[in-house]
Amino acid sequence: MRVLCTVTGSRSHIHALRPLARALADAGHDVLIATTADLAHASAATAGPAHVLGAVGLENAIGAGPRVVACLPDLQAFIRDSGRSPGPPGRAGEDPWPPFILDMLAGTTDTAWPALLAVAEGWRPDVIVRDGMDLAGILVAERLGVPHLSMPSGTANVLPPASVLSALNRLRAAAGLPACDDPRSVAPCGRIDYVPEHYSFACHRIPALRYRQPLDRDPAAVLPAWVTGAAPGRPLVYAAIGSTAREVASGHKPSPAREVAATDEPSPAREVAAAHGPSSGFPHPERALRALIEGLSLLPCTAVVATGGVPLGDIRAAPHVHLAEWVPQPLLLECADLFVTHGGYNSVREAMRTATPMVVLPLFGDQPHNARRVAALRLGCQAGGQSGEAVAAACRAVLSDRSVQGVARAARLAMLTLPGVEQVVADLERLVRER
């Protein structure tokens, strides 16, 4: 079986694909990963034994291990170059991010679709496992007449199939493909997810093949030795704002800041104002990082903050707050008492896998939706604003609430009832056979 996978967006999307690609390759199937130039070498490094290929001679690229080809446009660069921002909340405080994301995805598909088609026509896949931010994979699957599924994706979770269908039909027309009036044509074979149905983050009812969130550890990763010297009796808090905030924000002028009181009720309108200011725009990674560091400096804890390479400027941390550009997140979550996160879907799933309660400080994209869902499931709460005081208040609330810890453990137990990702091999084999 030949499996064409697509990865776009950020490195976290590679983490979702890596165990699946390895399982398929270990079972003897041929796996090709199509991605962006920036992610190509990251894909090769993280997918196990792999080779980075050009777009020529793919029909001969059969052998052990996933292979990687750089052919997709850089979505983050497209967003920066477009000069557009999500705009203010819509009517009734509607979240402005999903329509903006869909507009950006459709915009990159004009370039991605012919490039991916050229690769696929050489590779001749039996099935396509696509990034949830990849619409070109749908068009290519329809052109070749092969099934397709999307990977676990925060973006796919928040985009209503009816809205995607409208954009997809415009893209189909441009590609010479027939239109369809059924929203289910967006995902006719369903999707892949790594959380139980009860804990789903999807705002739609597209069926899912569900596997438990893999413990995606780098065998070479270790925690810093100073972790063992953490003050006994104090909680260990890990905080991170994700790997893409700096890249997405670059090239966009920050909006005027507006503080939101910690007692304010979260809403899409408040989330946008809290993260970006009243005029809306792109996230302030420096502001979010300042809020994390200042908030954790107010708490009696041992804290680790992954800065993601965001410049610290004049931000100063208390002695018990340790700063690092990067830490092995899956390892640290195994021992953390609390995770203060931007709310990326990959990070949320990793916290659920380790039963780590969360405080979510969302910045953009699907993160505001994920923050609301974390709170609704009682896996943690959303910070009331991007200030140190708001972060500290949210952390105190979660750390003092034993019921949140109980819910987090229950979610982990439910996740452990799902089959391992290795089950995807039999599921895809059956899907291809039945087509």
TrEMBL record:
InterPro entries: Glycosyltransferase_28, UDP_glucos_trans, UDP_glycos_trans_CS
GO biological process: antibiotic biosynthetic process
KW Transmembrane (keyword) present: no
Coiled coil location: none
Domain of life of the native organism: Bacteria
Signal sequence interval, chain numbering: none
Keyword Transferase part of the UniProt annotation: yes
GO molecular function: UDP-glycosyltransferase activity
Pfam family, one: UDPGT
Region (Disordered): 248-281
Keywords carried by this UniProt record: Glycosyltransferase, Transferase
Family membership: Belongs to the UDP-glycosyltransferase family.
Official protein name in the record: Uncharacterized protein
Source species of the chain: [Actinomadura] parvosata subsp. kistnae
